[in-house]
């Protein structure tokens, strides 16, 4: 007999319920993006308080990426085998602890450990969101939900721009980051209580089409082997890194000091301008996902985004003294083009069997973050190598020539990403079997 408190299992879940379940995963992703970008707004405070230069600051920011990237493939496999509910709950708990450690850190070593813990823990959010989307939403909405996931993340990143700067000016960076850690702990409890891996847990039909039988399952390592044997996965992996890497490096760390030094902007103005890139990126992601669904093709938009983003970064990072309106326009258009990276998740998911959606999402998100992991400290290292000795309020100031040299690494990766996108095989929005 059907329980009186549950609906018949013949119906799919209502949209509001699916969105609420998915939204708790999105909340952790939002917090993760906030934590990812926050050092860009408090560079002066961190460099002064811990007596560090650009290379050390780049490494401190990249500690997040080191552990985040390392967690992507394990997270993808665990999402396929353990389910997103447990992953999201555990991730929020560790993120709360790591955030508190960052806020209360007495030394560079401890603040780095806090960043590592935060990066590893919030690294479960995006793949878990995609896994939930494959169960709670129709397959035709997967690319759109991938784009909405980015939008949620970028809301967090924008919150770590001008709003964070205002709060830091008012209360100091440590109390603000401690408050974020407390909020993350609250999310941990809410996730455990409300999230279910599949609509069946709430008495509804599932949209998942990958099969639930043992025959449809690989071992975790077997599933990973099956994914990495697909050439399209590797091409999408490198192309996604070429699109998102420059965005995460510029908007996530080096854009604010670059804009304050060479365009005479205040820290608040520079943070707002860096946020323009992220906002454009966020709004373009869902639009490009829907567009690729409508035209039943992934490759054209993927190539378009990679190519135009590369051109935009060349203009911004290699040409000095752009008029401010032109700079804002180019940064906005570059952010829009970079939104094509969200097509990569649907593109890759369709390149492998459906039951490996979590594993392949982890692999692609690892590529997505690899640019930030490598580029943030690499740019900092080149800035220090080309520093001319200038100081301002105890922090190093770098010339445009130094930034041009550092940013050249980003441009090389961006161009290689375009070449990888050109080599991909179109799926026409059809799932591989």
Summarize the topology:
Layout: H1 15-37, H2 43-49, H3 54-81, H4 84-104, H5 108-122, H6 125-136, H7 142-159, H8 162-171, H9 173-194, H10 220-228, H11 231-262, H12 267-295, H13 299-318, H14 324-338, H15 343-349, H16 357-385, E1 391-392, E2 395-396, H17 400-422
Antiparallel strand pairs: 1-2
Helix pairs in contact: 1-4, 1-5, 1-6, 1-7, 1-9, 3-5, 3-10, 3-16, 4-5, 4-6, 4-9, 6-7, 6-16, 7-12, 8-9, 11-12, 11-13, 11-16, 11-17, 12-14, 13-14, 13-17, 15-16, 16-17
Task: Kindly summarize this structure in a few lines.
With 433 residues, the protein is mainly alpha-helical. It has 17 helices and two strands.
Describe the structure.
The protein has helices spanning 15-37, 43-49, 54-81, 84-104, 108-122, 125-136, 142-159, 162-171, 173-194, 220-228, 231-262, 267-295, 299-318, 324-338, 343-349, 357-385, 400-422, and strands at residues 391-392, 395-396. The protein has one domain: Growth Hormone, Chain: A (Up-down Bundle). A hairpin with a 2-residue loop joins strand 1 (391-392) and strand 2 (395-396). Helix content is 74%, strand content 1%. It starts with 14 loop residues before the first helix and ends in an 11-residue tail after the last helix. Helix 1 (15-37) runs parallel beside helix 4 (84-104) and helix 11 (231-262) runs parallel beside helix 16. The longest helix is centred in the middle third of the chain and has 32 residues, at 231-262. The protein has 17 helices and 2 strands.
């Amino acid at each position: 007999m059907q329980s009186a408190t549950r609906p018949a299992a013949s119906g799919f879940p209502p949209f509001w319920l699916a969105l609420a379940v998915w939204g708790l995963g999105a909340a952790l992703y939002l917090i993760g993006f906030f934590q990812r970008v926050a050092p860009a707004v408090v560079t002066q405070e961190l460099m002064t308080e811990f007596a560090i230069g650009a290379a050390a600051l780049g490494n401190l920011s990249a500690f997040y990426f080191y552990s985040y990237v390392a967690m992507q493939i394990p997270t993808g496999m665990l999402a396929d085998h353990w389910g997103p509910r447990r992953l999201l709950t555990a991730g929020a708990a560790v993120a709360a602890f790591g955030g508190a450690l960052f806020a209360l850190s007495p030394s560079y070593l401890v603040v780095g450990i806090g960043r590592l813990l935060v990066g590893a823990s919030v690294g479960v959010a995006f793949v878990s969101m995609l896994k939930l989307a494959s169960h709670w939403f129709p397959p035709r909405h997967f690319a759109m939900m991938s784009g909405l996931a980015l939008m949620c993340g970028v809301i967090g990143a924008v919150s770590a721009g001008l709003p964070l700067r205002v709060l830091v000016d008012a209360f100091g960076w440590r109390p603000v980051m401690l408050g974020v850690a407390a909020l993350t702990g609250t999310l941990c409890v809410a996730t455990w209580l409300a999230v279910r891996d599949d609509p069946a847990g709430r008495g509804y039909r599932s949209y998942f089409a990958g099969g639930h039988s043992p025959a449809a399952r690989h071992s975790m390592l077997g599933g990973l082997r099956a994914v990495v044997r697909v050439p399209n996965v590797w091409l999408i992996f490198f192309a996604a890194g070429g699109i998102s890497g420059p965005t995460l490096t510029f908007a996530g760390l080096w854009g604010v000091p670059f804009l304050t030094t060479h365009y005479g902007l205040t820290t608040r103005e520079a943070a707002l301008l860096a946020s323009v890139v992220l906002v454009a990126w966020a709004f373009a992601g869902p639009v490009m996902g829907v567009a690729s669904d409508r035209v039943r093709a992934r490759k054209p938009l993927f190539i378009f985004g990679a190519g135009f983003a590369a051109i935009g970064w060349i203009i911004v990072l290699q040409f000095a003294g752009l008029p401010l309106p032109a700079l804002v326009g180019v940064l906005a258009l570059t952010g829009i083009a970079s939104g094509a990276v969200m097509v990569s998740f649907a593109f890759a998911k369709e390149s492998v069997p459906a039951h490996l959606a979590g594993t392949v999402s982890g692999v692609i998100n690892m590529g997505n973050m690899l640019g930030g992991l490598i580029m943030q400290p690499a740019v900092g290292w080149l800035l220090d190598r080309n520093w001319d000795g200038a100081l301002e309020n105890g922090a190093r100031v770098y010339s445009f020539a130094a930034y041009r040299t550092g940013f050249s690494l980003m441009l090389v990766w961006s161009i290689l990403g375009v070449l990888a996108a050109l080599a991909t095989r179109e799926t026409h929005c059809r799932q591989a079997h």
